[in-house]
Design goal:
eight-stranded parallel beta sheet; 13 strands; alpha/beta; 32% helix; TIM Barrel; 324 residues
Length: 324
C-alpha cells in the first residue's frame, strides 16, 4: 500500500461498520476496514478482538490472520490485540463485554487462541483479579505476548502480583471501571502509582476528561504513556444514528458515540489520527511529544521500533493532521 504514513494504534475494534469481533465478519469486509484505516492515517495497528464465544475466536482469528498476511498489509498490521476473554465479570469492570463469555486464567485456552491467530497475538488484556491471572500472565510472556491489565477491580496486591508476573501496561486507563470506586484505593490510583505499568489512554475527549489525561501524563511521564483510539465498528462514520449491539447508537458532530437510552458511551468514533489531533488541541502538546505518544511508545510496548520510512501525515491550516 505504499509508504507508511501516520500513527500507531494498539486498540482498533473495527471501522466504518466492520466489527472485527462479529460472527458475520468476512474477509472482504476486513480488507476494506484495514484499507480505510491505513488511508485515514493509521500507519500500524493491532486489530482488536474483544470477549466472544470460543467459536467466534476459532472463526475470526484465522480469517483476520489470513488478511494480515497479505503483502499489502504486512507492514501495517504486526499482530492482534485480544481484549478478553480473561476479564473480570463484575459490573462496571465488564463494561460492554459479555460476562457469560469470559474465562478464568486458562493457559490452554490462550494456547488455542494463539494457534488460531497463527502466532500473531502481540498484546492481550487480562484482569489481575481473575482466578489464575498471574500464571496466565507468565504463560503469555513466555509466548512473547505483551500483557496489559484492564477491565478489572483488582486490589493493589493483585496488580502488584500481575506486574511481578510480567504485565507491563494498562489498557485504556480510567475506563472499564464502575462509576463509583473507593476514593483512595482503586485500579486507577493503583495503576498510576506503579511505575512498571505504562498507561494506554483514549484521548478523544469523551472517554476521559482532559484534566485526568493531564494527571496521567504527569504521574506516568510521557515516556510511559501511549495514545490509543479504541475505535469501535462505527468509527469513521458521519454523525447520525446507527444500530449497534442490539441498540441505537448516536454519533454527535463532536464525535461522541453513545446510547441515547442510557447516556453511556458505546466505544469511540475516533481513529488514532483524530485522537492525536484532539489531544494536540486540548493539551497543546508539541509534535515531538505526540510522536512519542502515538508512534514510539505504543510500538515499544509490543517490542517494536518505529519502521524506517515512516512519514508524517499532511497538515491542515490549523496544524492538525489530515488523512494520508
Amino acid at each position: 500500500m505504499g509508504a507508511l504514513h501516520g500513527f500507531v494504534d494498539l486498540q482498533v475494534n473495527g471501522f466504518r461498520g466492520v466489527d472485527f469481533s462479529s460472527p458475520e465478519l468476512t474477509e472482504d469486509a476486513a480488507v476494506q476496514a484495514l484499507r480505510g484505516l491505513v488511508a485515514d492515517g493509521t500507519a500500524l495497528l493491532l486489530p482488536t478482538v474483544i470477549t466472544a464465544p470460543e467459536a467466534v475466536y476459532a472463526r475470526n482469528l484465522p480469517l483476520l490472520a489470513q488478511v494480515m498476511a497479505r503483502p499489502e498489509f504486512a507492514a501495517h498490521v504486526p499482530g492482534f490485540h485480544l481484549e478478553g476473554p480473561f476479564l473480570c465479570q463484575r459490573d462496571g469492570a465488564a463494561g460492554a463485554h459479555n460476562p457469560g463469555w469470559m474465562s478464568a486464567g486458562d493457559p490452554a485456552y490462550l494456547d488455542r487462541l494463539q494457534a488460531w491467530a497463527g502466532g500473531r497475538i502481540r498484546l492481550i488484556t487480562i484482569a489481575p483479579d481473575i482466578a489464575g491471572a498471574a500464571a496466565l500472565i507468565a504463560h503469555a510472556r513466555r509466548l512473547g505476548i505483551t500483557v496489559a491489565l484492564g477491565h478489572h477491580l483488582g486490589s493493589a496486591a493483585e496488580m502488584d502480583a500481575a506486574a511481578n508476573a510480567g504485565a507491563t501496561c494498562l489498557t485504556h486507563l480510567g475506563n472499564g471501571l464502575p462509576h463509583l470506586v473507593n476514593r483512595h484505593s482503586n485500579p486507577l490510583i493503583d495503576g498510576l502509582a506503579d511505575d512498571r505499568l505504562a498507561a494506554c489512554v483514549i484521548g478523544d475527549g469523551h472517554h476521559l476528561p482532559w484534566n485526568l489525561v493531564k494527571v496521567i501524563l504527569r504521574a506516568k511521564g510521557v515516556e510511559r504513556c501511549a495514545l490509543v483510539s479504541d475505535a469501535s465498528s462505527l468509527a469513521g462514520l458521519p454523525a447520525g444514528s446507527y444500530p449497534c449491539f442490539g441498540a441505537t447508537a448516536v454519533i454527535t458532530e463532536e464525535g461522541r458515540l453513545f446510547n441515547p437510552a442510557t447516556g453511556y458511551l458505546m466505544g469511540s468514533a475516533f481513529t488514532i489520527r483524530r485522537v492525536v489531533n484532539a489531544t494536540r488541541r486540548a493539551l497543546g502538546l508539541d509534535d515531538a511529544t505526540l510522536h512519542r505518544l502515538a508512534v514510539v511508545n505504543p510500538l515499544r510496548l509490543i517490542g517494536l521500533e518505529p519502521p524506517a520510512g515512516l512519514e508524517p501525515l499532511p497538515r491542515a491550516a490549523d496544524g492538525g493532521w489530515l488523512p494520508a
